[in-house]
Amino acid sequence: MSAPGATVDPGARRVLALASSALVVLVAEPLYLLVDTAVVGHLDGASAATGHQPGVPLAGLAVGGVVLAQVASLGTFLAYGTTARAARHHGAGDRPAAVREGVAATWIALGVGLAVVAVVWLAAPWLADLLGGGGAVADAATGWLRIAVWGAPGILVALAGHGWMRGVQDTRRPIIVVLAGNGLSAILCPLLVYGIGPFPLPWSSSASLHLPALGLEGSAWANLGAQATVGLLFVGALLREGVSLRPVPADMRAQFGLGRDLLLRSAAFQACFLSATAVAARFGAPSVAAHQIVLQLWMFMVTVLDALAIAAQSLVGAALGAASVAAARRVSGRVVRYGLVLGLLAGVVFAATAGVLPGVFTSDPAVRDVVPEAWWFFVALQPVAAYVFALDGVLLGAGDAAYLRRITVGSALGAFLPTIWLSLVLGWGLVGIWAGLTLFIVARAVAVGLRVRGDAWAVTGT
């Protein structure tokens, strides 16, 4: 058992160690999604062989993928809420209590995950038609989603696993688990999408081995394999801790109490990004495909920047659990400084590669022509987003979820959503959608900056 106060005064080395470990875990999923996007995107250049119109497979992945991404995003309360609660127990020196938070979160994940499978499988055609505008894009999205959604329980169990492991500052096992699942899936994705063979069998002159090309649905099967593998490995990690796996209703109710605000916060994000995809689809397959490329790069950078936020969650929670407000403030200052440096560097890199990087993800010139409408908003937002996510991590570690819920919902209703729908009415295209995202991020930056300057968030104890 950790001694109380063991993490009360973390230095720069500890912050960076936790952040670098979190970074490996965080980038594994978006890196796989970028591979997935690139593999499916190049189906566009083979429309005669695949039977697809140009742009449809990638647009179908964009629509189906954004629905599945909402499942993961709405489930982040399992990770963030569990991290905050487990970290306070860890800071107070009670590891078994911290791990029991993981048990409660895992049971919630399984129940919610099975409900999600049932609802999304039944609603997939309606959701795809709503977001994809009907036609071939909606049909492609429906087929992809009805396979991939079976991975929802694994996605949510993994979020719960990340939560309690971050809380106890376990930096090694999450890396192993995530790399095992997503690495396997990244290998399978091109094989399932494009097929392989035929290969002659050495024991027969007439027989051969042939894996048929599954097209877009091969991407869904690869997704499902990754999520199932990762979920099972996190359950195994709980078994090795030696705590009771019996569900405790009181622990689950406490998880839901904190999770309510985080869930509403996530719902605001999802309303915005679902609306953005729906509006982009109304401007045609090239627009929604271009939006998918820039959005996946955005999500990739969000996870990179979130590595520092996760370090802040764990260390701030442990510091407040050990009753040290001063240490929590020192963590806050460090993660903001490191985040700003990282965000500025990212902006420079993406600006320099604007003429090259989009071509990695699609061979369709119509899609590449639309990408710049969103690209320069994406570049300019990097340092602002770094500041926001760093302070989000501080406030999440402190359990200040109600405030984060209020500012996120307010920024969504007051900035992002009105701009998105105005862009549809006035024909602004991706420029309007990404202008809305910019207003959303700036509003949140002002709100979290003012909050951390005060004292209301720094509540000590378990």
Automatic annotation (TrEMBL):
<feature type="transmembrane region" description="Helical">
    <location>
        <begin position="220"/>
        <end position="239"/>
    </location>
</feature>
<feature type="transmembrane region" description="Helical">
    <location>
        <begin position="335"/>
        <end position="354"/>
    </location>
</feature>
<feature type="transmembrane region" description="Helical">
    <location>
        <begin position="297"/>
        <end position="323"/>
    </location>
</feature>
<feature type="transmembrane region" description="Helical">
    <location>
        <begin position="262"/>
        <end position="285"/>
    </location>
</feature>
<feature type="transmembrane region" description="Helical">
    <location>
        <begin position="403"/>
        <end position="422"/>
    </location>
</feature>
<protein>
    <submittedName>
        <fullName>MATE family efflux transporter</fullName>
    </submittedName>
</protein>
<feature type="transmembrane region" description="Helical">
    <location>
        <begin position="428"/>
        <end position="447"/>
    </location>
</feature>
<dbReference type="InterPro" id="IPR044644">
    <property type="entry name" value="DinF-like"/>
</dbReference>
<feature type="transmembrane region" description="Helical">
    <location>
        <begin position="176"/>
        <end position="200"/>
    </location>
</feature>
<comment type="similarity">
    <text>Belongs to the multi antimicrobial extrusion (MATE) (TC 2.A.66.1) family.</text>
</comment>
<dbReference type="Pfam" id="PF01554">
    <property type="entry name" value="MatE"/>
</dbReference>
<keyword id="KW-0812">Transmembrane</keyword>
<keyword id="KW-1133">Transmembrane helix</keyword>
<feature type="transmembrane region" description="Helical">
    <location>
        <begin position="102"/>
        <end position="124"/>
    </location>
</feature>
<feature type="transmembrane region" description="Helical">
    <location>
        <begin position="55"/>
        <end position="81"/>
    </location>
</feature>
<feature type="transmembrane region" description="Helical">
    <location>
        <begin position="144"/>
        <end position="164"/>
    </location>
</feature>
<feature type="transmembrane region" description="Helical">
    <location>
        <begin position="374"/>
        <end position="396"/>
    </location>
</feature>
<keyword id="KW-0472">Membrane</keyword>
<feature type="transmembrane region" description="Helical">
    <location>
        <begin position="15"/>
        <end position="35"/>
    </location>
</feature>
<dbReference type="InterPro" id="IPR002528">
    <property type="entry name" value="MATE_fam"/>
</dbReference>
